[in-house]
Amino acid sequence: MGVSRRLGERLSPLGDGPFTRLDKLLSTLTPAANRTPIDLALGEPRHAFPDFVARRVEERRAEWGRYPALRGSAEFREAVVAYLRRRYRLAEGLLSAERNVVALSGSREGLFLVAQVAVPPLETGAPRPVVLLPNPYYVAYAGAAIGTGAEPTFVAATAATGNLPDFAALPGEVLARTSLCYLCSPSNPQGSVANATYLENLIRLARQYGFVLAVDECYAEIYSGTPPAGALEIAARTGSLDNVVVFHSLSKRSSVPGLRSGFAAGDDKIIAAFARFRAYAAPTMPGPLLAASAALWADDAHVAATRKDYGQKFDVAERVLGNRFGFRRPEGTFFLWLDVGDGEDAARRLWSQAALRVMPGAYLGHGEGAANPGTKFVRVALVDELATITDAVERVVDTLGTP
Known about the structure:
The chain is of the alpha/beta class. The chain is built from 15 helices and twelve strands.
């Protein structure tokens, strides 16, 4: 068997990623010639980020010549702990910069690698371990499950369940085999927030069945109204962080996706095992970038300004869309999740007739046809400046009308 065939078989359950599928979908189409193309398929923030980022990198330039600490610098981890205490009102004794935090080169890395720690080795004749995922989902979750040989179990997150997965409704046999459960809150793409009761129940479920709960909170600072509860905040009410690890990123919070900076924090036993595994698998961010990241975690003013900017964009979306396409103002994230009847068809029409690039919801979900909860939807990332977003939302209405 050739190398390429072996690799293909290993990766085949993943299929093509959403952006590869989108490229193929639009490859034979020409964008409307009378419109400037707008790409809102990718959740890449295009806001200005603080000037002090470049200054801090330059100030610490000597550190380009040194390997950083495996868990990230003490300065970085202390800034993270201070942020978590400030944001989630955590008691000082609950979190330790030494034991409970590890730096990541972006949250995707951590979300993928945590499965290598949480999922046990496969044993001949033993039940196959399960990894629970929301559906729709972030592709790193599915890649992590497949990469460990676990059985990915997709749990629908639709309007019927408040756009959050009902993991507790799974059969006991499935939960008993579960090693890892992924949750995203605020969720991508629906923008739903897991409230305190939901989180508390899910944490109890994780402890009852002995699985790791990995909560992707990279949109935690982009919200409307009340700040979303965090998994560590709710776990703290029980007096421990057992079974819980959260993942945060500066890409969305601080509009620096190119910095590739994030962290994992939580149960010290999980973090210790994760850091040990990561020492074999991944490099730590360079010292100058850790210093810039620490400064960003310590500053909340630029985050409030960014949140206000997103609020203005949702104001525009609310005004232009009204009640079309099932629009609702999301509790968090910066996405519109619009019911257009057929997401692929709408994406083709928006590109060819309006030069607007959006993501078909089916490419973010699992299943075929109606079994895929994203089939009827498109995701629109409100990541550009206000005038461009206004233009884009108006193009959606002009092109698609009311389904």
